[in-house]
Amino acid sequence: MITAENLHKRYGSKNAVDGISFQLQPGKVTGFLGPNGSGKSTTMRMAVGLDRPTSGSITIDGKQFSQHKAPMRTVGAVLDAGATHPGRTGKSHLKVLAATHGISASRVQHVIELTGLGEVAGKRIKGYSLGMNQRLGIAAALLGDPAVLMFDEPVNGLDPEGVRWVRSLARQMAAEGRTVFVSSHLMSEMSQTADHLIVLGRGRIIADAPIQELLNSGEQRVLVRTEQTSDLANALTARDVSISHIDAETLQVTGLDPRSIGRRALEAQVVLHELTPQLTTLEDEYMKLTGDHVEYRSGGAFEEAAQ
Ligand SMILES: Nc1ncnc2c1ncn2[C@@H]1O[C@H](COP(=O)(O)OP(=O)(O)OP(=O)(O)O)[C@@H](O)[C@H]1O
């Protein structure tokens, strides 16, 4: 279990992480989502002692990472997959890690198989592709069979097969009861992997909720088609209901569910041709949530923080 309490990190005058608190649950994939520069990597680095909080704390099972007797058995982290010795083979890299952390050599072969590195494990790391390096990083993270896994942008630069593999590995690890924490700046990625989302914007938490809840939090819009648009609009008009005319036969209604719209149409003797709830996508929600929190926007303009 990872717990952050009022965690802050300042770099000079910059609040990279600005007082965040959260608790991650075992058995779930928690997505850590936010635009570039929102503080995800800094938070993860503090969790494994690579950076010190300016104030507040981030602990794993109640202790700071450095206080754990066997850190590799506690947390498996892939924060920088490139941090290896290029002249070694993948297998010898894993063997050294195992030997220096009191992990049995049999785990090395096991994680090589688990990560699909079998064919390249005997080759030097300097010849590895990005995908192989990513798999090697994950193999190292799994070596100590830890209950907590932390992956920073694990699918960056991977091909579609690699992306699918990382997703299913994360899900499998959570199904085994582990706490799985995965960062990404892409909602589309997280929506296929995570059960729960923590959304960060400019170092602050802007959402901490199950994916389903985020999906349901948007206002439901319903598309209605009829030849009697004005009769229907009259029948539906009420406080908190907004109706917009899309074209001569189509209305978009917010504030009423499809069932109520159907019932009112029947009472007003309006014939409906279509009644379609418009699903809010996670992407829509994410854009809404982070719209004011983006540091770098497309178009090349740099916008200074305006908080
Ligand atoms: N060592 C550092 N020194 C100074 N500023 C830093 C340092 N590390 C991070 N920052 C700044 O802190 C902020 C948060 O960065 P961080 O890398 O944690 O964000 P992120 O959400 O992981 O983004 P990305 O997806 O781009 O890596 C950014 O504005 C970044 O420029």
TrEMBL record:
Pfam families: ABC_tran
Origin: domain of life: Bacteria
Ranges for domain ABC transporter: 2-227
SUPFAM superfamilies referenced in this protein's UniProt entry, alphabetically: P-loop containing nucleoside triphosphate hydrolases
Keyword Secreted: no
InterPro entries: AAA+_ATPase, ABC_transporter-like_ATP-bd, P-loop_NTPase
Keyword Transport: yes
Keywords from the named record: ATP-binding, Nucleotide-binding, Transport
GO molecular function, a single term: ATP hydrolysis activity
Family label: Belongs to the ABC transporter superfamily.
Protein name, as recorded: ATP-binding cassette domain-containing protein
